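batch job 7 of whatever, protein = tRNA threonylcarbamoyladenosine biosynthesis protein TsaE
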Amino acid sequence: MGTGDKMSEDMRLSAPRAESMRDLGRAIASIMMPGDVIVLSGPLGAGKTTLSQGIGRGLGVDKEVVSPTFTIARELKGRYANGRPARLIHVDAYRLPGSDDDRDSSDTDPRGMRNRLLDQLEALGLDEELEDPGPGTCILIEWGSAMAAALADDRLEITISRPRTSAQGTDGSLTEDGERIVRLHPVGASWNNRLRGWRDRIKSGQ
């Protein structure tokens, strides 16, 4: 557990539509900085990629953000709110060891999990990005909550949930719209300070 956990102040937000999720992503992008690690978790259909699309739009990335499931990671270029170049690495950890869906893992030791994960990331060329991000680099990881502590001491953990009645259409299939409950959990002083400032602006109506 990082020292930032002791002072964390979670934010809980409701997003009634898919576009609301993208708007939330744009708002998060507006306070992002180089070196950031953001971890998204939630069940299939919760809206992880939809939120990622909003973050991408907020950063003005050069390509549409889509699920990188089959490529594990994609590199996208954009700009931070201050105009500096941003290099967004979007990772889908669904098939990586220690991911939210790693049902076969019996390793509960964070160091063991980290070693297994870094071995896999090294094969993908992503280990150095997490250990020492390059200039302007930020990392967005879907399905990564189970490995969050092994990835970065300072991070923003985002958990998305959907009420069952909100997630299903009349035919029982998942719908794009429908309320999502989004919890933002900052770990580390930087994210705590940024979310506190954001919360204060919301309260003041700015």
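notes: The radius of gyration is 17 Å.
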